[in-house]
Amino acid sequence: MIPTNVQDIMAKMNSASFQAYVVGGSVRDIVLGKEPSDFDLATDARPEQVCDLFDNVKSTENSRAHGTVFVGGVGVTTFRTDHDEDGRSARVEFADNILDDTSRRDFTFNGMAMLPNGKIYDPFDGQGDLEKKVVRAIGDPGQRVRESYVRMLRACRFMALDSKMKMDYWLFKAIKRNRGLIQQVPVELIQRELMKMMAYPAPMSGVDAMRVTGLLHEVLPELVQTIGMQQKGCFKHEFNVFHHSLLAMSAIPAEKPLLRFAALLHDIGKADTRLVDGDGNLHFYGHEEVGAQIAGDIMTRLRFSNAEIDYVTTLVREHMTLNTYYVPTTMRGVRRLLGRLGDVPIADLLLLKAADRFARDGISRSDNAERDDGIRQMVATIVSESHALKVTDLAINGHDLIGMGLEPGPLFRQILNRLLEEALDTPERNNREYLLETARRLSNET
Question: Which of 129, 256, 341, 344 has the fewest CB atoms within 10 Å, measured from its CB?
Fold first, then answer.
């Protein structure tokens, strides 16, 4: 249950007359029957005492100020109490007992602690709340929220532990009353909480908790516009855009949290492209392009990396490509699709489209397998034969154009793009002799 290296640390601390408990999410995961990803310890020993006790200790001035040192990679933190300052940071004071330490934590199931023998110290009945599937604050919910505003979003994240999770009424009221304070939380923390939510078993419950508490309006206002937006009459859609997006997100495997986020945002452009024609038919022309721009704006605001932004916006932009009417059926079409995808695996686009289809009309992800297998086979052929999919795959480059007497500039890009078009249409043309000859001709035409 507790790894040997962690048990050894606890045993050595106990032999030196110090208390030692496993605390935090690892205890919650153990109670839920999950394998914890890491373990943290809490103790009455002060940081300098822990340092004196062990040789393999690492810490920083900031970590020691918060009572934490790392023994062989395991975080060991002195019992402490956090006193409210401004909801974004707190004044830390060390404590001498586990009750004071657990009392400062956010929710009952995070206030549990485990002894070396596996016995669980549970002063707030966190095990009971996990069994009843309730997210409940320790003590006064309003005070817990005011101590750390990000706890409001954390509460919604823990709603994603199970589709049957419920939020304690008084915690719900405290979040709803203070939801605007989430704007004062660093966006990096908001991004982290959203991604953790995406990796949980029931992200649909977490996002919906954000909706009912009002946090969705504060964090992802663009998504709020899709709530209740009907799309019946547009292909086979039965659900409103928001509910459809939640279903698509939930149909993606949990081990792909960023793909789940892409699924959540894949139809976000529909709010700005909704059109009813003269016959009363509903359309969302170009929603994938508009949605990609909106998704990029959201992710930039939340400070995702450029690679993450490119991944999600590419998937949002291309999610209609594998629609029945647009699916590539030739090697040429698949090559062009791969070129547009860049570093995004086509397997992820296939997963997104399957989830989209499932959320639209309930078709299982195993349907259309023959078509998808055909695309995969063409992709395998293209990869094995090293077809050119982007400019950098061409048999010549900018240095070759300079050698022809051309000066770097916009003409470079125009010529290389034209050459890529040729290679995409006819892979055999991606040879140095042909490309140089074509480049000379194109340069003379301009």
Answer: 256
